[in-house]
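Lecture 7 notes: from sequence to structure.
We start with the chain below.
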Amino acid sequence: MILSDPSAERALLSILCKFGDESYLEISDIISEDTFTIDSNKYIYKCIKNIYDSNTNSSIDIPSIYSTSKELGIDHILNQKEEAQHLKAIIDFPANQDNLNKFASKIKKLEIARKLHHELENSQDKLINISGSESITHILSIAEDSVLNFSALLNDSDNNPTQVSHGLDEYIENLINNPIDQVGISTGFPAYDSAIGGGLRKSTINVIAARPKTGKTLLADNMGFYIANKLKIPVLNLDTEMTKEDHINRLIAMISEIEINKIETGKFTETTVAKNKVEAAIKELKETPLFYKPIAGKPFEEQVSIMKRWLVKEVGLNSDGTAKPCVIFYDYLKLMDSQGIGNDMKEYQVLGFMMTNLHNFACKYKIPMVAFVQLNRDGITKETTDTASGSDRIIWLCSNFTIFKRKTDDEIAEDGSANGNRKLIPVISRHGPGIEDNDYINCHMKGWFAKIVEGKTRIEVVNGGGNDESEFNVEQETDEKIDFI
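Predicted structure tokens for the same chain:
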């Protein structure tokens, strides 16, 4: 394996010696000892770096390098005859300062190629140990992870702190020239968006907790379809429970407002009106960038690989390695099997590990994620953060935490049936105002055609701002009729 250019290394060292600290500072954030392939060049660069880091006004010559090598404990190497001749050749090398960035860029790219080659060799070793019982996704992820993780490390290589005001004028000018209605991506639920700080922001995990059979998957379908269909932003739905056909039936019912049971049984063809509505819904769904992947039973590492692959293939990455606008819905956060639980690791710790990795993933690619969790039994009567299973670690890392619940009979009677049968309660929010105590956002779940509509808040209803029956199109349905969740 070649992947080196000794002449470029020598020329770069010569420029650094001849033209002072300005040349060094210009390339110091990308060049390190590992960038050089010749051992002698590594030692010389180590001395140059030490000299300029200690005193930027220093000048470099052979005596200063020998003195520094003694301080670093490598003088016995540079004092050898061949090394002394090599150092003199570098000092005397006729290098041009204008070529500084060209040489630095060249040997840095060669370093990247060497490191990537090493990563791919490691992947080969892992592939050799494949037994054949692994999934195809797991096998592919071995190679993909090497490249994607390596790319992320390159994009995160700048460890130098900057002054907070650095780039401030450009940032403010961009805000002035590009005003927006809200910071994050809208979910189609305006009151919820406002409560959590302006929609789904980049690098955030937005957690929604609910008891079983409340409608959290239906909520994910409604929010996801709005984002993909109305905003044309790609959405990935990672589902741990339902089938693709279940989601298709719901989405077609949601768009066409034809009952789910008629979609599932094919009875929508009995009338021309229903058939035309379903056909129009199918056409609309085909044009919507909404993606689905069942992840039930898949190891968490494989789930992360699925998300990475989707970002690269379907969404696209920016030049800095972050993803273009998109949203991932994770429905829902739970253990897939018992592999992660041992004598020293409890279930809540495994959930905490999963939440930590989802948070790191969202930050790494600067995307928003919506993660659903189960409310524990305390969530039947309480509406606080400790009602989430594995709550502490989930709450620590989420941007906001919202409870989605059925309204009680008393609440429906007090608010009026026109104000819905579900409620959203944003309990905490890092970026938004949340909601006042004893308040909630009214929602109406029309389960027979898979739609959830947001209404007014409880306080707005109390103050006389409730919804008209025409706004919610409320029908008096039984629990059996609405439980398509």
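Points to note: The chain has two domains: 6-104, 179-482. Residues 100-128 form the longest helix (29 residues).
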